[in-house]
Prior knowledge:
4-stranded antiparallel beta sheet, 10 strands
Amino acid sequence: MSAALVIRGLRKEYRAGVPVLRDVSLEVGGTGMTAIIGPSGTGKSTLIRCINRLVDPTAGEILFGGTDLARLKGRALREARRRIGMVFQEYNLVERLSVIENLLCGRLGYVPVWRAWLRRFPPQDVARAFDLLDAVGLGDFATRRADALSGGQRQRVGIARAIMQDPELVLADEPTSSLDPKTSVEIMELLAQLARERGIPVIVNIHNVELAKRFAERIVGMSQGAIVFDGPPAELRESHLLAIYGGQGWIDA
């Protein structure tokens, strides 16, 4: 299967000469979930954010549909971004809007500004938003304000909003870090299920190794801005985890 995303020699420096990403190269196929694991500060979130250009890379290529995202600007970048769904750690919802209105924000890249301003979305978008709410288990919450939801419910809205974009790729940046263990499992199950049903590849940056092993078909381990493991969960050994996390203590804890 051809790759949905090809990253070559990606480098990011927030300060000159101090790389956060060190010439990262990675190919992501057209389906399945890829989990990126590693300690805090190793560049996981920076990698995710370079892909959709929330962070500008210092060097390298990010080929998506044959186009180098690293070189895009203006309208071309906006059009490319609408093909990439994003699920955020802190949900990134518009708190004062209703749940259904937050879902429809996923269509902002596809409708004229005046329609968005007046909240006059096409009927087919509205119908699809309600269908997605049912799919994420929030069919009865359409008119509830986002700030009245629990953390798990907010993340479900965030996932549905990403799917509303009709994306060709979904990025999830620590989608479970603010959630309790039970809700974290539910969110990962939901991400995996929606991606599988719709044939959308997902890249998820996650701290929880066990969740990564349970739900991802592929694990990419990062340490000090570089990839030190890339393979299926069954091949992830303690020696790899030591190389990724740099010490025995966390395993024995």
